[in-house]
Amino acid sequence: MWLLSLLAQLETKNKYKRQIKALNDKLYAIEEEKKNVVDTVSNVPSNSANSKQTAFENTDTTETADSILLEDELYASEKE
Q1: What is the DSSP-derived secondary structure letter of residue 1?
Q2: How far is Cα 2 from Cα 50, in angstroms, rounded to an integer?
């Protein structure tokens, strides 16, 4: 009887060892990917990212609500 208990414990122990090894392999792969991403991001020149302006930054944002309403009215009258 004790022999069966011992075999069952060894079987369970081996099962958990395999699961731990698989999880460690996944963790190692994720850490390597993270390291690669961090290296890639840190190697991007900072001046090229700052020198590019988006379309929103290039537009004039001093437009008033009255001018927007006027444009809407003109657009509506053109449709008619």
Answers
A1: -
A2: 71
Token code pair at residue 61? 């944002």
Rounded CA separation 38/24 (Å): 21
Alpha helix segments (H runs only) across the chain: 2-42, 46-51, 55-58, 65-79
> Per the structure block, which two tokens stand in for 21?
């090894």
CA 18, CA 12: separation in Å to the nearest integer? Answer: 10
Three-state DSSP state, 54: coil
pLDDT in 10s for each residue of the chain, 80 residues:
778 888 888 888 888 999 999 999 999 999 999 999 999 988 887 655 455 555 555 555 555 666 666 676 766 766 65
